[in-house]
Amino acid sequence: MDAKKTTAQIDGELEALRTKLRGLEVKKQSHAKAIDKAKAERKRGAFKAHADGDSTAAAALAKARENEIRAVMEMEDIGSAIAEGGEKFQALEAEREETYRRERWEAARAAMRRAQAEAEEIHLHLEAFSNLLQKHDATLSEIRLRGHEAGQSDAAMTRFKLTHITRTLFNFYLKRTFPTGLGVEYSKQYEKPYTMIMAQVVAGAEHKAQPDGQDTVGTEAETEPEAGTEPGAGAEATA
Length: 239
Known about the structure:
Layout: H1 7-50, H2 55-149, H3 154-157, H4 163-177, H5 194-208, E1 223-225, E2 236-238
Antiparallel strand pairs: 1-2
């Protein structure tokens, strides 16, 4: 088998062979009709040629016999050609199947190489993301520390945490990539960019905190931003 042939090329060969086989079948039917005609002519002229000694009938009978023999032999040849063509067709189909599998495996290997390159890129992004999260976590810790030092309550400060990132990561960013889920329970209140969530957390903290460090809400339980809440509105849902 020529390993360089493609399935498209083999399909072309199969179609050409299929056309030839159809043509042979037409020829076979034509020769079958010729045989029937020759037999009928021999039957009509047999009595006159043999019983009456009619020379004209004898000549016609000989011609009909010659035509029948030729048609029978040609039809046998056509049958052999059809059989050989069928074998060629089966061989081409087997070749096509093998070529198709080879092409699909080559495509799979090419996709594997892309996956490896993408994995390297993903690794770099995740490394950068991890480093940024560590930096962001330190910033959130500083917010809580400085807020407590300023006399602000836990209700205003403890919502500055990485939990919001993990929840919005699954509910907003990864949900677009994995719409069927990742084994986590989605929450509509986190179906928004992290920038919007952080804006709501900051606005809520500023709304609770007073310039002198007093909190009008007091030490209420830790809460999460509610879906649809505008920054600064102060409306929240219990986590």
